[in-house]
């Protein structure tokens, strides 16, 4: 079964890619950071535009173009986020929803639901923190049993 493209085929590669999240002093103050490859090339940048009632972040590619917009859903128990194509927050552009696997956690465990899965019974992907000191994580697909 061929894997399907969720965001854009230009971000698909046959092998795993190590990324480093880098923040500088100014970024810590405003909440922006970048992802670099092992050679120090910036691949992605995350911006937190302004302030407001809803938390929102925009993932930009290395050229500054919006790839995804992440918006926190308010008043949820599992800290849910909706992820949209590009710079949109329109329902028709929603790609997936992410939530914490449980309300109380020692390490990061997230469930990812593709599309408009309102029932959220079986997740499509999981993200698990692997090393607290290095703050690393692994994302993997969940296949039906």
TrEMBL record:
InterPro entries: LOR, LOR_sf, Tubby-like_C. Pfam families: LOR. Belongs to the LOR family. PANTHER family: BNAC08G49520D PROTEIN, PTHR31087. This is Protein LURP-one-related 15. It comes from Eruca vesicaria subsp. sativa (Garden rocket). The lineage of its organism: Eukaryota, Viridiplantae, Streptophyta, Embryophyta, Tracheophyta.
